Amino acid sequence: MKRLVIVAGLLAVTAALAEPPNTYVGKLVAAEGGKLTLRAKVDFQDKLVELTTTDATSVQWDGQPATLAGLKRGAWLRVTFDGGRAVFIKRGLCPLAEARAEQQKLHPWPLSLTISVSGPKDGQSAELTLGTALDGAPAPAHLAAVAPDKAGAMLDYLAAEGFLELADKPIAPLAAPHCLLTLRTDRPLDLLADDEPWTAETRARLDGLRSILPDAKELDRLLAQTKDWPLVTLVEHDEHDGYFVKNTFEPDAPTSFLALRDQAAYNNVFGAGFVMDDRQHRLPKNAFADSVVFAAIHRGHDFYEYRVRHVTVLDGVLRIEYLANTHQNVDATFACPLIVRVPRGAYRAVEFAENGKVVKRLAW
Questions:
Q1: Half-sphere exposure of residue 346, counting CA atoms within 13 Å on the CB side?
Q2: N or C: which end of the chain has fewer CB within 10 A?
Q3: Model confidence over 75-89: pLDDT tens digits?
Q4: How far is CA 325 from each of CA 173, 195, 307, 336, rounded to the nearest angstrom?
Q5: In degrees, to the nearest 5, what angle opens at C-alpha 294 toward C-alphas 293 and 299?
Q6: What number of CA atoms fall less than 13 Å from residue 195's CA on the CB side?
Q7: Quick check: is 73 in a domain?
Q8: Same domain assignment for residues 35 and 87
Q9: 268: helix, strand or coil
Q10: Which of residues 231, 249, 268 is at a domain's end?
Q11: Whole-prediction pTM value?
């Protein structure tokens, strides 16, 4: 049985990747100036593809006419082209997400999707599980039964919304406010989770889920309970590397958290070790004309690796959410920086949230 499931899953992946001729499926990089840029798989390699567009280019989103201006960067598109010209554009699916959905449909029950929402205030939390209790596990406190024939529709929706593309093994939850989705089956390897800030887009994703599950009245209660909770806004950001912490800057401090407003302040903290064929992601020239830089530094025998998850703003408080993994070496000491550049804004404070916990707040 396991062999059949694996083979069927591989067939689903193959089917998802095998697109008809003159069709690209890829992530939107840009759509401006009469040009459409996608990151698509071409000859089994990820490549940037550029196509021309015209006002007459047909665009369809969820079966409804749309415009190029309404397409969001990062959206998956299925583009039919003629030569170098895009003829028809409609919503696409990430091949991985589509394959995950199809594989799960081979064994759709028991299956549950848990929605956990946390607001900005203490005690603001709501949770609901859609699906069924898992064999051998206690029933969730808030369970909304979903008919087996709706499981496939729920999986297709999760694929189209990007959940099955981004979901991975659970990690530390984001600092509130956020919405954590967790998909479970009775197979431990199927446990997938994705934590997103509580934005207008995240809220709309739950509204869309409600539209395909007309019998899930419990979801109405969760949506009503969270209706007036403040929404955060995602902030564009860029991470930079190739810099070292100067040994004259707070050498004895185990950690440093900084807001740097100009190049002089930056140069007081960081130096750059330029090398031949330099591919480090440096700050652009005149970076501080329209940006500010925030930095976290850990010192000691632990070598830190960082990954920024999200940068958000709520009520003037900028929050940098990041993961930090460590590797210890008792024979060496390190000063490991995280360097994040964001647009200038009317911020009143910045918070550093490391592995789901706010570890520092700086007045702005």
A1: 3
A2: N
A3: 899 999 998 999 999
A4: 15, 18, 9, 11
A5: 130
A6: 20
A7: yes
A8: yes
A9: helix
A10: 231
A11: 0.83
